[in-house]
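Deliverable D5.2: sample structural annotation.
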Amino acid sequence: MTAPLTFEPIFMERMWGGRRLEFEFGKKLPPNTRIGESWEIVDRLEAQSVVANRPLKGKTLHELWTQNRHDIFGDVPETPRFPLLIKLLDAQERLSLQVHPPEKIAARLGGEPKTEFWYVAAADPGAELFLGFRKLITREQFKRALDKGTAEDCVQKIRVKAGDAMFLPGGRLHAVGGGNLLVEIQQNSDTTYRVFDWNRVDATGKARQLHVDQALQCIDFTDVGPHLIKPNGEVLIKHELFEIQKWNLDSSREIAPLGQFAIVCCLTGSLRCASVDLGPGEFLLVPASLETRQLQPRSEGTSLLRVTIPNF
């Protein structure tokens, strides 16, 4: 290995998306589209990251995971696919109120478990996240609120700003409010159950498909008033799925020991690792076997997220 790996982003059109990834992060979006998600690092049947730079240009993430695992990823837990999915989210309008299944319930419903982390890269004044419940509520009470179209009254709203972060275990009711630009780091899953869509209808008067029965089986009704993450030094979250740190990069620093891989997301400023330069909203993967492991700030005010998979 002679350089970190960068990947081609995969853009996803969403009804709630916009063009912020273009003017905020310089992404080359397809014209006349509302892009809600940029899948930056993904190994799934329906979406596959492809290496953008040499020497492994054109290789898929799945090929790296199955053919070069030790060189690229070091000593990591055994899974059929790379276990994380990393995205950028541009919510011009608010997303539906939804839930992802916890491990035990996912298997029963035929879905995939999903735990995730959000970092607020940018937020309009007054932007909100919808997280958990305002007060203790029963499944029956919440179902009645859904039937009456008043579910919004049950959900906790949190005003957010750039730099805020949130952990979302499977089972946590949530939605992204309009005006948020997020980095999402999650379990490799694409199972979402929408439970309420704010009584919206399309131009023909038709409401979006919901998954109320499945959602009600997944939601944790004891999840009242969850808080934003309070960092422990540089550590934002350390979980069995991922460890995420926020670094303010004032001088050169080794991203991880030799033998451990790490993913870098540049938040502000710019940085270099070996021959690869990174600006805001860009990602690179430092292979476990890469000997040149120093991150060098290229401008003042450089900050980044560092993502690793703990080896407990």
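Annotation notes: Residues 128 and 158 are 5 Å apart (CA to CA). The two ends are 26 Å apart (CA to CA).
The annotation will be released with the project's public dataset once the embargo ends.
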